[in-house]
Structure to design on (475 residues):
């Protein structure tokens, strides 16, 4: 009986999981480590953000958020730092 | 706890087989034409690191610490380091041959400690004060600039040398043909037209194209001395910055300012966590490198609330073209270059400060308390 319940949970559970998405932002003026620090802080401090990492090398920030997250909140968070961002790409992740 | 003693004497990294800069010629470049006094000063600089992980970061920790060059005006006579790191190695594997200590921890949990002690000897570099250029003459034909010096004529992402930079350089030098006099004109233009802006973070980014394009001629030492360097290069004079740190009290310029040029307590102890300072030098065919520091003129002018035409400012300006008082040590000449191993964030603007990443996230090196590091220098008398 236990095995059957476990199996059932394993089959049903993924249907209930909310998938996440990775939002890649272009932040063209990000040219120094302080810019990266500031953008990381702003994105990581935004409600709902699971993970965020900015790169001076690519001038982009990768942000992991829930699938139903409003991407505009990320742009607003970056704007508060004095930088401006554009959404480059959104991909679903499990 | 691991402890190692490296670098005894001037042999430094090259004899350890650790030096392999892409610009191999940098190693054999002519040393500055030093007319330094025989009076050496000896400083022990102790750097204590206890790295703080940025919120939201975790993982591998990498730290690059700049290590002083050996020149005729400064010698690193001893370097030792200890801490709870996984690995700490010295290298100069970058295109400028900039020496650094690379330290790594496998993860960011727990304490991230490092203590570095450097014993440094310095002596004043006074080319003009000691009249060493009295016999120098402008080469009759076009001066030949050796291959080893050519890189110091080129642009980098932060050192633009064309467009507004070239136009400004030509405006400043006019019809003057002597590179020594051209350099003096540029030095004086920079020291009198630029101003120190205390609101700039750290030493400034030294983005010369942006500074001259916007006409906002304020900044700190990297901004100001990089404008000098770029204008020299645009005029055909090889020039470079040297990124370093003030070690102790000024002797020679104390009459002009107690605050601007470096200070220490009665025991020779200086707290220098925020003492980073960038200087500049230019190169004359048939002679070699000549020191300059227009940024410190602007610093003194602000600190002492003086105007350009005050006798004190003029005296400091005269001294700082062609002379350096060595209560400061230079780390390297690197600009816009890749560290080794390469930082995840890419090229660094310069390595005048320590640089660290936790899983690729940079630490704020401009803020010693946030990073965190603490530097103390003690002069041995």
């Amino acid at each position: 009986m236990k095995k059957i319940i476990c199996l059932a949970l394993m089959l049903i559970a993924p249907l209930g999981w909310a998938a996440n998405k990775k939002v890649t932002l272009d932040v063209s003026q990000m040219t120094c480590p302080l810019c990266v620090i500031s953008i990381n802080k702003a994105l990581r401090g935004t409600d709902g953000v699971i993970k965020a990492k900015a790169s001076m090398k690519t001038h982009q920030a990768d942000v992991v958020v829930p699938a139903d997250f409003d991407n505009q909140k990320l742009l607003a968070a970056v704007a508060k730092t004095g930088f401006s961002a554009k959404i480059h790409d959104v991909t679903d992740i499990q | 706890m691991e402890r190692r003693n490296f670098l005894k004497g001037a042999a430094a990294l090259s004899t350890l087989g650790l030096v392999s800069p892409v610009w191999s010629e940098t190693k054999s470049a002519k040393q500055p034409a030093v007319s330094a006094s025989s009076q050496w000063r000896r400083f022990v600089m102790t750097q204590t690191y206890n790295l703080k992980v940025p919120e939201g970061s975790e993982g591998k920790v990498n730290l690059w610490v700049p290590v002083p060059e050996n020149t005729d005006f400064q010698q690193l006579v001893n370097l030792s380091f200890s801490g709870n790191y996984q690995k700490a190695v010295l290298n100069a594997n970058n295109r400028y041959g900039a020496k650094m200590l690379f330290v790594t921890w496998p993860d960011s949990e727990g304490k991230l400690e490092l203590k570095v002690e450097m014993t440094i000897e310095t002596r004043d570099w006074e080319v003009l004060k000691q009249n060493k250029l009295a016999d120098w003459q402008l080469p009759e034909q076009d001066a030949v600039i050796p291959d080893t010096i050519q890189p110091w004529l080129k642009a980098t992402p932060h050192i633009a040398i064309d467009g507004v930079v070239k136009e400004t350089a030509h405006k400043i030098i006019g019809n003057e043909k002597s590179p020594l006099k051209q350099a003096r004109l540029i030095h004086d233009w920079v020291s009198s037209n630029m101003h120190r802006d205390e609101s700039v973070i750290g030493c400034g980014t030294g983005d010369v194209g942006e500074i001259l394009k916007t006409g906002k001629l304020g900044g700190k030492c990297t901004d100001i001395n990089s404008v000098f360097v770029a204008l020299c290069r645009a005029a055909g004079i090889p020039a470079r910055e040297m990124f370093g740190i003030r070690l102790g009290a000024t002797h020679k310029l104390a009459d002009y300012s107690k605050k601007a040029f470096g200070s220490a307590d009665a025991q020779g102890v200086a707290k220098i966590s925020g003492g980073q300072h960038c200087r500049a030098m230019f190169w004359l065919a048939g002679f070699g490198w000549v020191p300059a520091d227009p940024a410190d003129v602007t610093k003194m002018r602000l600190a002492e609330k003086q105007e350009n035409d005050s006798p004190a400012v003029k005296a400091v300006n005269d001294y700082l073209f062609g002379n350096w008082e060595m209560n400061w040590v230079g780390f390297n000449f690197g600009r816009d270059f890749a560290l080794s191993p390469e930082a995840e964030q890419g090229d660094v603007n310069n390595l005048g400060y320590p640089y660290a990443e936790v899983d690729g996230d940079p630490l704020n090196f401009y803020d010693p308390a946030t990073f965190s590091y603490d530097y103390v220098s003690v002069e041995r008398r």
